[in-house]
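[audit] Reproducing an earlier prediction to check determinism. Same input, same settings, fresh worker. If the tokens differ from the archived copy the diff job will pick it up downstream; this log only records the rerun itself.
[audit] input (126 residues):
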Amino acid sequence: MAAGNYQAALQGYQQIAEKYPKSADRALYCIGYLYAHPKNPDRDYQKSLDAFQRLVSEYPRSEYRQPSESFIPVISEVTKRDRRTSSLRRQVDTLEKQVETLEKQIEQMKAIDRNLEEKRRQAPRK
């Protein structure tokens, strides 16, 4: 992790958690921390939350329980915010497409208006 290789660090801690399940609390804590780390380009708040929640439920006497419990509400809120942001992005994309469609329709209507105006000017007057 110190070298910025978050994937290698995650893989190492995951191997530790699998090989030593009875004492995997520290590995789970580090996994949760690494998945939430702001410099991790592959950060995944849901996986971070899963690791912390697993630690809390499987290792109730762990020294890492308290800090994990502190992370859970924060990461839960970030996860909710990310879902809302994603939903809003989709809405913005949809609205931008609608605006493009409406702008094209306006241009088409303007062309029709110009054609009608030109035909009206060319029509013989009575």
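[audit] rerun output stored. Observation attached for the diff report: The mean pLDDT is 94.
[audit] end
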